[in-house]
Each structure stands twice: as structure tokens, then as C-alpha cells.
Amino acid sequence: MTRLLEVEGVQAGYDGLPVLFGVDLAIQPGEAVALLGRNGMGKTTAVRCIVGLIRPTAGAIRFEGRRIDGWTADRIGRAGIALVPEGRRIFPNLSVRENLVAFAANRGDAKPPWTLERIFSLFPRLAERAGNMGVELSGGEQQMLAIGRALMTNPRLLILDEATEGLAPLLREEIWRVLAELSRTGLAILAIDKYVDRLVALCARHTILERGRVAWAGASGELAADRTLWERHLGV
Fold this sequence. Notes:
alpha/beta, 4-stranded antiparallel sheet, 10 helices, about 25% strand
């Protein structure tokens, strides 16, 4: 089976300062995978390489068998990778409905496609706030909107960078519920989050970064069984 995403030996950095040193990562179609590590270890940089916001200085990134590490971010998005970025970055002066419609696309002919109605079914709170401006939403509602906006592109891979950051416990639970539901539909997911116990439940495999290098990679069962990994690499 062709891997959906394959990151091989990727090196990258900023202004000549290296951040990633030979990072490897793979995701199969329909698989949920977590990218773990303390703050500043290179997780977001790795994601930025995958979605075309940073060009690697070495290594290769393939999506559905095609090299994409030289592609622009918009071309990568059109190919089927959607990012829910840290900080949400919704349009504050557009309504909930307008934020969603602005990103509507089904270039891969997904069946069934993500539509406004389907997003509102997934997030009933967004249906209630459909006419509200983005700036009028709570942090949790903005996060729901950011996820809904990404889904409206009908991606084959959904990447979430700290999707539960700063949310109240009840809203965090709502996001975890939605991610589990999305995983059950067969959507491939790459998740970065600090709640390791929830990622163990959601994801099949995990990669831990330490100072820009892969410190450990393995299955959820292995990570759940070895708490020393959490203490050594994740600070929990």
C-alpha cells in the first residue's frame, strides 16, 4: 500500500539556523498519527515543511507517492492536505457561514463531501452562531470553526497543531469527540497536542521529537505501557 504521507530525512530551519535534523514520519491512508515533544523541539517546523510554508534544506516529503517538498502551500492544499494551525487564524470580520463557504472545495471528489450542513451537524454550536462574526466567537467556537473550515476543503489528510490549546475542559472534550468521529470516517489525521493520554486513545502510532530529531517512534500500546518515555521526552 502506498503511504499517504512520507517524510524522509527532512532537515529545515530558519535564517540558516537548523531546527530539524533528519526527521522521518509516515502516515497510512485513514490512519491517525501523533507528533509529540516538548515545546521548541521542532513539531511545528515539521508541520510547516509538510504544508509548504518552509522548504526543507534536505530530505523528501511525499504525498500519495508524489514529491511535494518543492510545492507551494496553496498547491499542497489543493492536493488534499489541510492544516488547522496553532492560534486558529479564522477571519474575524467574516461570519461563521462566510468563513466556511470561503474554503469550500471538493477537488478530490470526496463522497460524501463536507458541506455546510455536515459541518453544522458535527458542530451544532456553529449552526447556532452561523451569522455571528468570527471576532464574536469564544475561543472554543473559533477552534470548531477552524476545524470546520479545514474540513470544507475535503482533505485526505487533516493536520492539527495544538487544537485543544487554551480551551476549557468541556470544550476540549468536544474537540476530542470530534477528532475520534473524524478518525472513524477514515480521514487521516496528524495531531500535535500536549494531552498525551488522549492522543494514545486517538492515534495508532506516535513520533517523539527531541531537539529536532526523532527520539522515539512506535505504536500506542508501546507508548501507553512505558511511562518513562513520557517522563524522559514529554515532561509529564
